[in-house]
Each structure stands twice: as structure tokens, then as C-alpha cells.
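EI: anyone free to look at a 261-residue chain?
SC: sure, send it
EI:
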Amino acid sequence: MLCIALAGSLLCLARDWVKSDEHAVIKLRAIVANLAPKKKALGRRTKERLEAFEDERLLRQLLTLPIHLLQEAKSAKQPRKRAMLAQSAIACELLIYAPLRVENLASLHIDRNLERDRERWLIRLPGSMVKNGEDQRFEIPAEAVGRLKAAMRLYTQSDGWLFPGRSGDAKRSGSLSGQIKHIVEQRLGVPFHAHLYRSIAVYLQVRANNAQGFERGRTLLGNRDANTIRRNYSYLADREHLRQAQEEITEQQLSAMRKRR
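SC: here you go
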């Protein structure tokens, strides 16, 4: 613990007193993060909420929610409701393709963090915005870009903030998180929190790619420690292997029954 405190003090000195360059501050921030105690595996509540999305119907509803929210926003007559639905559609769309932490999502600035000069948009986060101190980059496919453009036309991005608050600054992360939680729970009828999008991103990769899914999930979340991803999500791979084994057994049983006829 003494090492952590010392490293934290050095970071404060470098950032606030010495005014070190950004690169040095990023490296010190990464050192502090590496010295911190390792986090425990996913909590019981998160696992229970994630398990609900093993239901294919519910998963489809979550993945198509941005489309439905955009349709509702287009037909909304009240400007405030239209803006709220459009922002929710954008937030849910982005979290599917770029499972950012809500703090980063809320602070997205159109000119500083979005590259919109091509068919596919790029989201760029400098290391100073990211927990592990490393730059992050996400590519948003053309299909989603079309919906994002349509949603952005439905409200004003004050001072370039993708999610502007009432004061004209970026919306507070707590407000955006609550907005996402409310809209998903209202439409899907299950307990939810915005951070769950990150777990669902890993779940989708592990389910589709087995062992490779851990590395893809690690990349999506911007986590440098592959062991953390395996520790938190290995149970998903085990569950998927069990499901595939049961399907194989069922197929063999049906084949045996056909041969007996």
C-alpha cells in the first residue's frame, strides 16, 4: 500500500506542481493503476443481469433498441422528448460497437473525438481520457453511422458535445448512465446498468469465437491485462462449451433414433 501511496503522490506532483508533459503523466497514471490491488471477479448482481441476455429474444431486443428509439424520436412532437430519445438511441448504438466507460461516452466531443469524413466513423480517445492511459480507437460501421446521423439531426449538439447537458456543457456521466438504465429497463423489462454493455460485448465475443473471444473482448474494453478478462468471463466460455456439448448429444441421440427406424 505504501508503494501505491508514493506513486499516487508522484503523479500529483508531476501533474499539478511540476507540470510535466502529458506523456509523462500518462505513464505515471499507468504505473499507479498497475500497483493498485487487482479487482475481484464480476459480482453476483452483474452475473445475474448478464445471464438474462443468454435469452436470444432479449439479446435481440437490446441490439435493435437503438433502431426503435430512433423511430420514436423521429415521431416525437415535444422537442425535449425528441432530444432525449435521439440521445438515448446514439448512446445505445455507440455502446454496442464501442463499449466505452460511461465517463468517456458522456465526454465525447464531435470535433475532438469523432472523425466523420468517411463512410465509417472513427472514435478516438487520447490516453489522458482512458483509465489505462493508452489511446483508444473504435470504428463505427456505415450502417450504424446512418442512424447516428439521423439521430443527431433531431437535437442540437451544444458547443460540440455529443451529449449536451442543460447548461450547455457535456452531460454528467451519472445523468447519462441513469438515462441509459431507465430506457433499457423500461423497454426490456429487466434490471440493467450502462456498464453492463461492456460485459455483454465480451459475452458476444466469447460466444462467437470461444478462446479468441477473450482477446477480442480485452481489446474492446481497452484492458491491458488478459488475465483479468479470463478471470471475469471464463465462466461464459464454460457455459457456451456446455451448451454446444448438449446440442451435440441431442443431435447424436436424434441420429440414433432415426437409424433404429
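EI: The radius of gyration is 21 Å.
SC: 👍
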